[in-house]
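One such shown below:
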Amino acid sequence: MKKAPISLFIVDDQSLYNNDLKEEYSDVGKYAITVFSSLQKLADHLSLLKRPKAAINIAVVSLKTDNEKTTSPNLTENLLLKFPYLYIIKITDGKELPKEESYKPTGNLIFVKRNVNTLLRIDNGIKLIIGRRTLEIKEKQRDIARWLVVTSIAIFIVAVLLFRILYPGIFYF
């Protein structure tokens, strides 16, 4: 069986969104869903994981423990620094969402406010991440194709000039 190109890691200590997300993304051929109860278990799993170049790794983090404010931001930042290919959707309880500008260097963190629309916002965040990653892959493929075309044209021009210098009689009609 072919490994799913999109890995969805759910970090939820109270199982608030596990069943809903599993049901939403139950397509076995497209998504590989793994559930963790803490960010440390996710970090341990990611350190053992081999990451294919085209894979998309998304972690949905929903922690409601009392010590969330002291440990979770540090672990989230450490995850982003240690695993730059990981995209994190963090569900927060705050009235005001943290500014994403502080995480601009990595660009892999999306904040979602915990309310009735949380699952829809998570779904939109996952689609946004998949769209961004797909666009990055297409841009790289476009750049490679452009480089091949420019290189081919340059080689052709150099070859024509070289033949013109070496065999000038061929180009006179």
About this structure: Residues 118-166 form the longest helix (49 residues). The chain has two domains: 6-137, 140-171. The chain is about 45% helix and 20% strand.
